[in-house]
Each structure stands twice: as structure tokens, then as C-alpha cells.
Amino acid sequence: MYDYLIVGAGLAGSVLAERLASKANKKILLLDKRNHIGGNTFDYYNSDGILVHKYGPHIFHTNSKEVFDYLGNFTEWRPYEHRVLASVDGQLVPIPINQNTINDLYGLNLSQQQVQEFFDAKAEKKDQILSSEDVVVNVVGRELYEKFFKQYTFKQWALDPSELDASVTARVPTRTNKDNRYFTDKYQAMPLHGYTKMFYNLLDHPNIHIMLNTDYKDVVDEINYRTLIYSGPIDAYFDYCFGKLPYRSINFKSQTIDSENYQPTGTVNYPMSQAYTRITEFKHLTGQKHGKTSIVFEYPTAEGDPYYPIPRKENTEIYNQYKTLAESEPNTFFTGRLGTYKYYNMDQVVAQSLTLFKKITLKKVAQVNGKDLF
Prior knowledge:
alpha/beta
């Protein structure tokens, strides 16, 4: 008899498995339909001996000391601040848009105050910010929106930014200073020996039993367990009774190049006419020294593994129907990006799982004491 059956060995499921096993002394069965742990953060050494991320670049950043310290129990950290360039008008310029971007793109030498005045002169102020298009043109105007966001967003989501929730482009700030870092979080680092090694350490507990290459629905009726934690797609759990929740996926095209480096930064975005959205060179991320280098092109698609929930009002309405059903499921918790249909960063998934662990353990204490706190 397992105390918990946990579906999904990505961050959401693995953090809960570790906490419940090590802190609550519970017996855990962790299932995943893939042939590896680590979910989308899985990395491995390719045939040339280069450490690559199988599902595209994953950059760890957070402002939460709790999250950073928690994961630090299972990995040493390599300091790393991600920098991204965008290929625009034949130039590679920093993104998010900042003082350097404007000066490089237009051949100017504006001060920080002058950059703000430049944005103010270009901005199309909106009374209401309703879409991703509104977010950008409200701050920097239509010309920069067209250059940096419109086509990139359409390639990524197969929707015009005017059809997408404001949260999509709001994730990418605009700056007036010269800060070229993609993220400004207090803690920015990469696992020194890779994400997969971190996951092996995370799940190295005698109370945790792992089954890979296993679809939960194929075995659930044969397993004895008390509580289910589900981090897979919530619509699949309920057999798509309200219809499929739409996701965007990615086709990854990898190459190993007989050169020490391919591009000047870890990631270069292509917001213009190319079919791919970005190219990532992994050695920038990992710090690995190697005579060759590995890159990956990303081609967004509607088919394939569910990576990105599509943030639109009608999709939220579908999800809310599933959420109502989920709340009535006995001894069952839904978590993670797929289980809650939310576009979370890695640190947000870890924080969500740490919070859920506290909620579960409090609930169990309340039940033992004969109190109903939930």
C-alpha cells in the first residue's frame, strides 16, 4: 500500500515526492509515461559528449530564497545570468528592449532619460490593457511592437497578439537602463552538474519508488494507494469531458557544430520572418568546455507534447469547468503547469509544490485531531 501515488516526475511531482517521503515518512509511487525523470527540464550528454536540454533551454531564476535554498539541498549552483539577443533589421540587439537596444538599433546615443522620452513619444496609450498587443504598444509604440513582438508572438502561439491575454507579453519587460540580462531575479543560477543529476539527488530516498514508461491510466486500477497527486493534463484526467484544453508545443531541431561557439549569447530570438523562434547554444548555459558546440532550433507547433497553456479567456472558462470537477475528487490533488493549466516558471512550480505539501500535511494533522480545517 502506497500512501501517495504521484503522476508525473517533473518538478511538481518530484518535489512533492521528496517532501512527503523525507519529512512525512510516507511511501510514494512516482509514475511517468516518459523514459526519464525530470520532466521538461531533463538534460543529458549527447553522442558528442555535450550536455544539452532535451526540451529546450531551462534557465533557473527566482526571487524566493526558500525555493533557491530548497533546491540547493540537491545541487551545487553555477552562477549564470541569461542574456538574449534578437535578430532585427540585420542586427543582433539585446532583448528585453533597453537603452542599448534603442541606441544600437537606431544608431543613437540616448541617455536613460532620453530613452524614456523616446518611448513616451512612440507609445500609443490605451485606456484599458486587454491584450498582449495593448501591453506593448502602450509602452513602446507600434514600430517596436512590429519589430520585436508581433511576428514572434504569432509564431509562438499561432494567434495575433491582439487575441492573446495581456500576460503573454507582460512577461517581457521594457527598460530604460543598460541592463542586458533577460531576468532580474535575485537568484540566478544553473545546476552545476545539470538538472537530471539534481533530480536523481532529489528522488534518492528509500520511500520513493519510481516507475517510468508507465501511463497512469494503464495501471491505476492495479495499485493500492490512499491519495493521488496528479500533475498531468487535467483534461486528460477527466477524459476530455468538456473538450481538450489547447496547448502549444515545439519541434526541436538539434545540431552539433565543429566549432567552440556558434553565437555570442545563450539564446538568439528571431522575431521576423524565419519559421523558428529562437536558437539556443547550450554551452553558454552549462559552462561546459568542449571543442564542439550544440545548438537547437525551436519551431512552435500545435501538435506534440503539451508545453504552453494558451492564455485566452475561452480556454480559462474550459479549465474552470475541469477545476470544479477536480475540487470534488476525493483524496486527489492537482498541481503543476498541466494540472492547473497555468504558464508557470520553474520556481513557481517548486513554490506551488512546497505550498501544497504544507497544505496536505496540515490537513492530515487536522484529520488525526478530529478537526476539519478544510
